[in-house]
Amino acid sequence: MRIDIISANVNILEPVTKNGLISRAISGEHIEIHLHNLRDYSEGNYRQIDDTQYGGGAGMVLKPEPFFKCINLLTESINYDEIIFFTPQGKIFSQSDANYYSLQKNLLILAGHYKGIDQRVIDKFVTKEISIGEYVISCGDIAAYVFADAVSRLIPGVLNDAESALTDSFQNGGIMDAPVYTKPENYEGLKVPEVLLSGNHKKIQEWKEEKGKENYEKYKAKNGKNTNL
Q1: CATH number at residue 203
Q2: Which domain holds residue 104?
Q3: Closest CA to 208 of 195, 221, 223
Q4: For the chain, what is the domain count?
Q5: Which residues in the chain come in under a pLDDT of 50?
Q6: Does pTM surpass 0.70?
Q7: Is 220 left (phi over 0), alpha (psi -120 to 50) or beta?
Q8: pLDDT at position 163, please?
């Protein structure tokens, strides 16, 4: 998989490509991540990438010209499955979405900043608008990192234990992870559930499924969810 990210803040994303899971995915040649500095596509001595809003209003807006120039250049040689922009009005990103994107070959992400990007960029190029949650963050680069991490870990070979991704919370509708324990068996009077020490794999699996369902019910109650994932 190849992920291209157009950003006004590539210095935020550069460490991500050199550390953690995404770094391992890149070094293992499971994914490619290419960062494109928006300023490199801006004309003029000051490499300006933002300007004031037409109609007034607080906050600067990323200009259309650098985006158009960069995207047109990239799409000359790459056929993107999706061109993604993170925005409050986008679809809330879910595990099923991560599964979908992990099966794609080429993705292009536009990371917004300041008050946003010129709407003409969105109208011309964007195929999917995504929100990572009902809260505000300082820039789209953070959302791009969240997205890339969630998608990358689903690609075969990225995780050492492939089963780990398949049993994650939200991966199976109506079931979340059960509580987990490790040594010591008894710590300050707090004990590991007996069933997990029994060696009875059938009962252990039944216990995990039951607790996973309980955790999902807690999730629904806390978040006002009325239907299964």
Answers
A1: 1.10.1270.20
A2: 2-152
A3: 195
A4: 2
A5: 163, 228-229
A6: yes
A7: alpha
A8: 46
